[in-house]
Design brief:
alpha/beta; Nucleotidyltransferase, domain 5; five-stranded mixed sheet; single chain; 2 domains; about 20% strand
């Protein structure tokens, strides 16, 4: 079985061919980081225009690298939610036209389900059920993976996502966009306990997250120091921030695992590439005797392979769409 996956939910135009659910035949990513860097973040209109310019070439290269033609495909999978609506529409429109023109099934894929599926590409032995922490620039979720296409969200952020907190604090510290990777690098040279940062409390659901207060605390710490003419050690602050975010994510995930009876834990999303988060969750699972899975770093960010992988399982489950498929900026995993 060969599935082409197309991803365009934010600022990466990506395509990949995956064989039999878990073997990557090709993976092509066209990133826009350098263009958006001058604005300090992703500009949706620019992202959409670049997707229009890049998507045909990216898909052609993915097919060529895999040495397959459209006729060889069993289906065409595409991210349809959630994400930047203009960016999503480019991918969805292209995938619909491609599927209709070559008579192949169109397979809709939820972006977060795709991130979870990145683990299957790294760990062929991984099978549901298990508990997964998804941490990215726009999302922080704790999800029960009940089956390959069935999910239950047990915890989510009430405000900022973990990746958003990383990026906004990084910008306040003077790091260029995208800030998360610079926080990670600076943390290696800093003292993670130099600054005592808050672990915001959340009422109502013990597994929910809140990172807005942490972000505000870091920004206020920087502003207060600037007003007093005090030069803070940026590496120490970066290390303290990373240590705090990793601790919050790990503590909530472990609490959910113990309460729900899971002993198999996975990590997914862009923040899954952060060394502090990877180390903290891995150590916590090892301490408790839990199985732990996380994608290889190149598969943590947005990519077509994860969409093709999840698309393969959706296809096997009979989840397809027709020409009426539309992009959606927001959509809960439980409403797939």
């Amino acid at each position: 079985m060969l599935i082409l996956g197309i991803e365009s939910s934010c600022d990466e135009t990506a395509a990949s061919v995956v064989k039999d659910c878990r073997t990557i035949c090709s993976s092509v990513i066209s990133t826009q980081i350098e263009e958006h860097k001058k604005y300090g973040g992703v500009v949706p209109e620019i992202a959409s225009r670049r997707h229009c310019e890049n998507i045909l070439g990216v898909v052609r290269k993915a097919l060529g690298d895999a040495d397959v033609t459209l006729a060889d495909l069993d289906g065409i999978a595409v991210t349809y939610a959630p994400g930047l609506i203009g960016a999503l529409l480019v991918g969805v429109s292209f995938a619909k036209a491609l599927a209709m023109s070559c008579g192949k099934p169109l397979v809709p894929v939820h972006h977060l389900a795709g991130h979870i599926a990145a683990n299957y590409l790294t760990h062929p032995q991984l099978e549901p059920p298990y508990l997964c922490l998804i941490a990215s620039g726009g999302h922080s979720h704790i999800v029960e993976v009940l089956d390959y296409t069935k999910f239950r969200v047990v915890g989510r952020t009430r405000d900022d996502a973990a990746g958003e907190c990383f990026d906004k604090c990084a910008r306040a510290m003077g790091f260029p966009y995208p800030g998360g990777v610079h926080i990670d690098k600076a943390s290696a040279e800093g003292d993670p306990k130099a600054f005592k940062l808050p672990h915001p409390a959340v009422a109502g659901n013990e597994f929910d997250f809140s990172f807005s207060g942490l972000k505000t605390n870091v920004i206020n710490t920087l502003h207060n120091a600037e007003q007093k003419g005090i030069e803070l050690n940026r590496s120490d602050l970066a290390a303290s921030l990373q240590y705090t975010i990793a601790g919050i994510l790990t503590d909530k995930t472990m609490a959910a695992a113990e309460a729900l009876g899971y002993k198999k834990i996975a990590l997914a999303g862009g923040v899954a590439a952060n060394s502090g988060v990877r180390a903290a969750l891995s150590a916590a699972c090892q301490k408790r005797g839990f199985e732990f899975y996380m994608p290889e770093k190149p598969l943590c960010g947005d990519n077509g392979a994860m969409i093709a992988c999840q698309g393969s399982y959706n296809f096997l489950a009979g989840i397809t769409a027709d020409e009426s498929l539309n992009a959606m900026a927001t959509l809960s995993m439980e409403d797939i």
